[in-house]
């Protein structure tokens, strides 16, 4: 990884979950973004399982084409008493 030599010109990265067959959702990458004060966000997140996986890895922004699934995911978080990140 780039360690602390990387200087971001952005406060957030919005990216797809995959690019040219390469997954961009590894826990290590998401942790690295957070450690460097870069808010990780993903678009095209269209399954509840993927939403949960990314949420638990520390992703701050989830964009979906399925608002019905987003609502269901949000309700699931309330039931298990997870607090949304601020």
Automatic annotation (TrEMBL):
InterPro entries according to UniProt: GP_PDE_dom, PLC-like_Pdiesterase_TIM-brl
Biological processes per GO annotation: lipid metabolic process
TM stretches of this protein: none
Record-annotated GP-PDE domain positions: 1-74
MF annotations from Gene Ontology: phosphoric diester hydrolase activity
Annotated protein name in UniProt: Glycerophosphoryl diester phosphodiesterase
Species name: Staphylococcus saccharolyticus
